[in-house]
Task: structure prediction
Amino acid sequence: MVFGKLREYRVVPVVAVDSVDDGLRLCEALLEGGLPVAEITFRTAAAEAVIRAASQKFPDLILGAGTVLTSDQVQKAADAGAKFAVAPGFNPVVVAAARRAGLPFAPGVCTPSDIEAAVAAGCTMLKFFPAEASGGVPMLKALIGPYGHLGLQFCPTGGVTTENLRAYLALPAVAFVGGTWIAKKEFIQAGKWGEISSLAAAAHTAANGG
Result:
């Protein structure tokens, strides 16, 4: 399963790009940094086209769709070639659409009620968001406690950095972390591809015990 592969890399760059050209350059930068993973968010109108172009040009890249808020976006992501999708919150309509599309999906949670709703809908991979603002590692640890026996996996996102990702990854229930710090929008707009490659390599090294 794709989430199992993401667990091997431990870090998923969360990216918003405004054009296909920028998206392809970004994917090249991540590959050069040794991190062949990207979550392209539907925060921009270019997301669908970027996923389609990048999945064709870089077949070995594990491409996902982020900020997937509607059933329509689920279908667009799946049709474009996304291997997984993520949302900031839990919406049973979107979860059902992802299941129909055969698209592995991780809804966002930050409370016990969120977790229980997601579990009731059949979700086992959950995005803990916004991670740092919601209490960080101590909060996630507390949330995992009552549900540890269910075998849930978490992806903390929001405020995660190279400096704090190890603390999250030390929790056995954390499969991988996500974040925008590797490919900030200003880096993309300025064409700082080398810097993005360096940040990707540093994040990969930090996440894998380097």
In short: The mean pLDDT is 97.
